Amino acid sequence: MPATTIHFVRHGKVYNPNHVLYERLPGYHLSQRGARMAAATARFLALNPATQSVSALYTSPLERAQETAGIIRDQINLGRRERGERPLDLIEDGRLIEAGNEFRGKRIGRGDGALWRDGNWRLLTNLMRPSWGESYQSIAGRVSDFVREQLEHRPGEQIIVVSHESPIWSFRHMLETGRPEHNMLLRRTALASVTSVTFESGSGSVLGITYADPAARLA
């Protein structure tokens, strides 16, 4: 059976001077540091013999993910053009979007709009559920649907996916433990990191999971 590898990349650092919990809000872009993080990860992927042969590049519809994916695309396409290969395009997929969160638009800190005002703290009743937004079951389920589709239509290929911390970790936790519920404080999904999952294309069995943090020195 051929093996399919999906490389899940978390977006780079976001420009957010007011410390807003932006979740799915529009208008939140990579900071200058975030762009450098994305560039470091792009170089890492472009130099990796496996991802040099990537066949598709998917992204969440949110700006920070699309900007990260665009930097990766441009770097990988340099090599593809030199080899006479067709450049990659970005493919947007809503299943890769950030988790829904009832705290969207709130600020971390004090003053008007702060997270801890107006009784918002009452939503923090269960770190494993979570109790303040989209369930981990829902998050992992939509990523699973995306992955099953890739295994069916792109067997044996290398695929890059740019998404967000919660979808990437919820899916990985489900693969490793059988359940997506987890303590969000214990995630291992750094900004611009790469979580690579290799599947047997026919059965969908997991053959291996690796993790890399190419932008660690920029964090």
Automatic annotation (TrEMBL):
One of its GO terms (molecular function) is phosphatase activity. It holds the Pfam family His_Phos_1. SMART domains: PGAM. InterPro entries: His_Pase_superF_clade-1, His_PPase_superfam, PGM_Phosphatase. GO terms for cellular component: cytoplasm. Gene3D superfamilies: Phosphoglycerate mutase-like. SUPFAM superfamilies: Phosphoglycerate mutase-like. This is Phosphoglycerate mutase. It comes from Bifidobacterium actinocoloniiforme DSM 22766.
